[in-house]
Queue: 2 jobs
Job 1
Amino acid sequence: MPDAAEALTLTLNGEALRVAPGTTVAAALLLAASHARISVTGEPRAPLCGMGICYECRVTINGIPHQKSCQILCQPGMDVRTP
Amino acid sequence: MNARFDVLVVGAGPAGIAAAVRASENGRRVGLVDDNPAPGGQIWRKGAPQPEAARSWLTRLDASGAQRLQGWRVFDAPQPGLLLAERSGFGADECAELRFGKLILATGARERFLPFPGWTLPNVMGVGGLDALVRGGLPIAGKRVLVAGTGPLLLAVAAELTERGAHVVGLCEQASLPQLIPLGLQLLKQPGKLLQGARLRFSSRNVPMFTGCWPVEAKGRDKLESVVVQRGTRHWEIACDYLACGFHLVPNLELPMLLGCRIDQGFVTADDLQQTSIANVYCAGEPTGIGGVERAIFEGQIAGLAATGRTEEARRLGRTRPAMQSFARALDRACALNPELRNLPHDGTFVCRCEDVPLAALREHRSWREAKLLSRCGMGPCQGRICGAATTFLFGWTPDSIRPPLLPARMSSLSACGAAGDSLQQPKETR
């Protein structure tokens, strides 16, 4: 658990999630044991490449869909949604 | 946003940083565009203790005066001297027209993934992939990790994860021991690399290591629970929380191909000054051959010098090239894939993860293009960046054309930059 003084809070599907500054949204998803997307045949998918190539980690952030969570740092108050 | 540079560098890994630093030295206006939040590329990613070379080059970059465009993705090259890029601003999406006199491509490499049953389960990821996530804040202490695939990254990541308190339950290298020996002999000629290897081996001394060994199935309900590995005729199951699996690296060639750079045997052709077949376009680092950090810095410096007219200095630096190339060749041979790995996917195993295209749907096709058109393999958001390298290995297919946008781009970016020159209708044949 990150240092309380430093931690920032975002929401994942409406639930508060506290992470250390510098945490990527993809790492936050894994931290919360959440998948990122559901594949076209209905499988849950989570980050694969970690570097913005594979698009498996894409989520909706602040209402904007298809954001590559591995290349985006968590910000206070960020609203992250997964299906 | 519009910007104009004497030298524009794409990619802020070691090659791109070295290129930007050297090109900035005599007052040129230099831009460095990169899709990650911070410079360093994959190998110098923040979140872990940095090697001396990384600290030194990142400090030089800070002092260089090069303008850094972090978080920007290049998606088109509509005309000579112009790239289009976008970034997500969450409410303020932005598009940029980046104009340049000289262009240095330092687009780096990605992991090669091979499909096997269960590889789409959550918590099965790349070797560099898991490392990037850990550096990005994923706690790994106490977690059981199996590291598998091929290449020097396996040992490096096993060591780093061990140092962070992970329980690395095994390291499975697909190459056989005899296949690895020539690389070991190369290391003897490079004390720096040998020392680094010895340090990594010491850190991971308690990790069981197997050569000629690979995962054949990842098991779990909603996420990974265990991995079945194979060595010769023996199979066994290893319980773990994460499988980090990658089969060495393949270069990121999409932008070089879009620009029309000549590609030979999977790599960008560049001369002694890193000049490609296209005027004013240089290429440095992994896209010209997978050879590691030192080679990338070396080529980046040469490109930065050459692109600013200091060809004599570039040629003097170039004298150490043969040693770099022999290491790259030894690495290539050490990581050559065992043909048995072609049997990893079963009929129902998804080869294309974006479109969930199983192996059985690909067997009847004769080319990458035919498979794309008839099965949708490679037609999803990643545009074949993952399954393309897999089908090259499985079927010998190679991409025969590339067209913009290079990656999914927002309609607002496409229309905002539309006035800059419309190349979106014209696919470029590259072979």
Job 2
Amino acid sequence: MFISKYEKILIPVIAIIAGIILGMIIIAICGLNVGNLFTALLQGATGIKAGSGLNLRYPGELIVTSMPLILTGLAIGFAYRCGMFNIGAEGQFIIGGLFSCYFAILCPMPSPFGVILALIIGGIGGALWAFLPGLLKVKFNISEVVTGIMLNYTALYSSNYFIKILPGSSATRTVDIPDSMNLTSDFLSSITNNSRLHWGFIVVIIAAVAYWFIIEKTSFGFSLRATGFNKEGARYAGIKDGQSTVISIMISGFLAGLAGALVVLGTFAYGRVLSAMENYGFDGIAVALVGGCNAIGIVLAGILFGLLKVAETILQTSGIPREIAQIVSSSIIFFVAIQYAIKFLLDKLNNKLSGSKNTKTKKKGEAA
Amino acid sequence: MDYAIEMLHITKKFPGIIANDDVTIQVKKGSIHALLGENGAGKSTLMSILFGMYQPNEGEIFVNGEKVIIDDPNVANRLGIGMVHQHFKLVDIFTVTENIVLGCEDKTKYGTISYRNASKKIKELGDSYGLHVDPDAKIEDISVGMQQRVEILKMLYRDADILIFDEPTAVLTPQEIDELMLIMENLRKEGKTIILITHKLKEIKHVADVCTVLRKGRVVATVDVKATSEHEMAKLMVGRDVDFKVDKKELTPGKTVLKVDHLSVKNNRGLMAVKDLSLEVKEGEILGIAGIDGNGQTELVYALSGLSKPESGSIYFNDQDVTHYSVKKRYDNGMAYVPEDRHKHGLILDFKLKENYIVHDYNHEPFAHRGILNQTEIDKYAVRLTEEFDVRSGQGIETLTRSMSGGNQQKAIIAREIDRSSNLLIVVQPTRGLDVGAIEYIHRRIVDERNKGRAVLLVSFELDEILSLSDRIAVMFSGEITGIKNAKDTNEHELGILMAGGHVED
């Protein structure tokens, strides 16, 4: 009884612990110091390192790394709650960045309207990029996974082309985005020992609250959840599943586009030519999965995966290859993905617990 | 006295519930022993224990006088226990013979399957028990009644001496039921032992020797069927007096509410499932559609509700052509609809009970204001429906629908649809899998709606249900209506012939 009540939280926690244990085993097999993994995680999360004291740059960078992951996690989670797998979030992320970059460079405006508008335009870019797979799914029943993957590549290469033709662009990047149009903050940077921390965290908080509000509190969210849980049941109820499918994948695209805008306007403050996909969209799948597709879970999972990313760099300096951190994060995803196996084991444990209780009471009865 | 099966003091606990509480049944060799009980009374658990799918917490099992531990269905098979499942486990594209030998094939010296001995044995079995089937026919080409015979032959082929029948008559026509009863009597004559799980008292009365009644996991009584009336058994099962009579006042039907005009509908395999069908339902009447499952009833209802599009023909609600209306628009035009499949259509199982009450009306007042759900109004409404229709669940309106019992899930749907006060109520299989108490209640509510002057279209595969509720009965066979009768002027026999595609003189 106790276990099933907390199963929702228990399963990801067990998955995370199992993933970390697997990582430790691999480090040990490689003959390296297992303790380094924990010092790296601790340092990444808090900036505390034994011997050299506190460095707030680390938590600052942790937030910077986590923000886009949380947003793409929300994007994937939103689509998932409506019964869709928006693997095209990667492409929507790229297009969102491109749109906001163009707007920020070509139409400078006074702060803060300029930067807010640039963010929204980034989101709209992502939403438009998601519209196509949504429409094709509804009209022709074409899987959003196939179209999404194809559009990811289309997004990557067209974005690179459009970045390069912006006036002033080099072969790798655009000119700097003017201060009134970007999210960077000297203040935030200075209190975190020159990290790249920027105002984007406000956007992330708003997005997470909006996510929760739309899904749990609005009638629109009601119809989306109905469709996601049981498409046929929603159709029977008279909910227009086609319409809600398109709108929900567009909202998902908006969130992914927002993540792209955040990276361009905040983390770098210039547009980049990408040599390959950066996997923010794909990492979002893991974040949504571990976070159980609810707002708080996704925020926490986003921070966790951000921490693993940050830890990669720290591990490298202590002689542990970054692949180890990647193994840890992949194992966590793996253990979450096999959550039914974990659930199965929990149920067994649960049965055993209640079973042994029964036999105990029986024995007492017999004695009496 | 020789017992084929003795299950003594069986107790089986699941977390939070005792499914079997000190249950003892003793089944005499060569007898037909009925197991009667409402849903959740513990029949299935008991049989699952006998079949090796669960281990009891306490108690012992004896088969033919020997103490056994059955921890695996294979052990049960070896002990000669066979089960005829409610949903047949047959491979559609295999022949009868192939299905029967599946899993225990004789091999030739080249490693291929030898059918010669198998065919011979099947023929012998068929002759001695009156189970005649064409051994070379494919399963998909034979009737449901025949498929059931194949299931029985499968058990006999494996030398089962103790046969468990799980609700065997749910899918059969009245004539097929009679034949099955005969087969069971033949089996008994040849010394087989039968355990019959059912909630149909008539069948128990007809064929069983002894009946054990279970209620809430306990044995209420084991009675001699000959000496006990149906009414007494029903009372034992439910724990109170049951009134099978439905109180229907005389009504003159009013104007036409639903009119179906030359409607043709394809099924999901692209075949014409409803062929040029016309019918009318008037205010204050229940039109029952009788027929065996799979004769186009499902497709007809899908087309009426808007879940699928008809090929040709028209549908009118209150003289308005709704043929091309969406599902939503049909609800707005006065339709209420209790669907056949409550898990696929009727409910969103991962929703809370209160959320399921508002699936049609979640997006307008009073449940939503400017797109934001009004929890206070939703809760108020949900509490009212739950109380009015006596829907029971663990945590009230916050209960996850998935965790509710089938009867209460169905009550929740009925509550929602009836409370919409539409003037057309489409009800499909409203009591499938429900216990007597729930059936009684749901029947009363449906008749109440008719008495209020609403038009009710009732589709059911249970002939008893059709006969006791309907004013007029339309029989569907192979996508067409083979006859429309006044309920007062017809009987089971006549309808049975129509259901099988035969003709009767008017």
